[in-house]
Amino acid sequence: MFTKIIGFLKRRYLHKYLLNIDQKRNFQHKNKNPYYDPNFETSIHGSNPSGKIGGRNLVTMVKGVGIGPELMLILKDVFACVNAPVMFEELDIDEEDPEMAEADMENLALSIRRNGVAVKGNLEKDQKSLIISKNISLNLKLDLFAHLIDFRSYPGVKHKKSTDREINVSIVRQNTEGAFAMVEHEIGKKAVEHLNLTTRFNTERLARFAFKHATQHCKERVVVVFNKGYHEEAEGLFLSSCQTVAEEYPDIKFKSQSIGSFLRTIMVEDYRDNVILASSVGGQMISSVLCGFIGCSALVCSCIYGEKYAVFEPAARQRGMKLVGQNTVNPAGILLTGASLLRHLGHDEHATALQEAVDETINCDQVLTRDIGGTASTCDMVDTVKKHLKTRVAMGMCEE
């Protein structure tokens, strides 16, 4: 009897051992990242937090799903045109095998920790899945607590959804707390409780980020938008924490406003030179309204910041599965994402050149895709931007 038990245990654990060996082999075969090192703290890149190789910044790039690979090809093409001193470490997420996808996400987090900065597409292939979002999971894993979106109106966009009023504001919202804290549990078998987690530490950290952004970009005022009569304890802590931080910045005007009052204000007035500080849900609501005002969500980019890392992506997290290969996608979002990335890396001349090239394409040449009232294709818009960039490069404005 004892011999049979020993034999059973050997067969069982030998099977698990061989299975683990096979999974490791598959992972090594699947992983094509030449810079991969699980011991990144002691790797050649771990000692260099700026992620530079030969004077070039090393940036993690994950293409995402749908139109993501097309957008990343556009970004690399335009960066080459503007002589941007950037190298990309390209990664993919396996969408077919959940275990491999989890390993790829760990690999992605390691890469961002090495390089300090990343640009990515939408990581979600199946938005109906009940599994936690890969985008949110990455934010929580890297403590990317601040979500920044800059909204600017474009005079060249004459779209039925856009407005003639001038808009030039920045929105800073929670990215790891509130609805994005992902703290929930079952109560029995018939109920689930979701906690809208808000802490003073993270709120004050977010508020300081907003005030520093206002100081660095010459914004006149920080407006805290809160949900009146909704989660009063959490919103009260959010508001009081922001008021405490406001006392540290006497040169920046401070105002608090309920979300209903704020939305009525931007409906009838020009809104510029302000930083809007909001919770996770409130920030999303305001962003959706402002996207309608400027004409399209493809005209803005998202900058997500933590204490050590930064991730850049188009604000329109559309998968665009039906748009793949159609040459109709608006490339403005990924181009503006590239400009923000370059500015973050300290390449201000290249960032300004790319930003101005996009502005001239939209406002002066009015080469517009269909989603903003034009008839141009993706390639038409990209070619026009590249034409303006080549002019600037020829004038010596963008040296590598």
UniProtKB/TrEMBL annotation:
InterPro entries for this protein: IsoPropMal-DH-like_dom
Pfam families per the UniProt record, alphabetical: Iso_dh
Keyword set, alphabetical order: Tricarboxylic acid cycle
Domain Isopropylmalate dehydrogenase-like: from-to ranges: 58-385
An example Gene Ontology CC term for this record: mitochondrion
BP-aspect Gene Ontology terms: isocitrate metabolic process; tricarboxylic acid cycle
Highest taxon listed in the record's lineage: Eukaryota
Keyword Metal-binding on entry: no
Family note: Belongs to the isocitrate and isopropylmalate dehydrogenases family.
Name of the molecule in the record: Isopropylmalate dehydrogenase-like domain-containing protein
Organism encoding this protein: Clastoptera arizonana
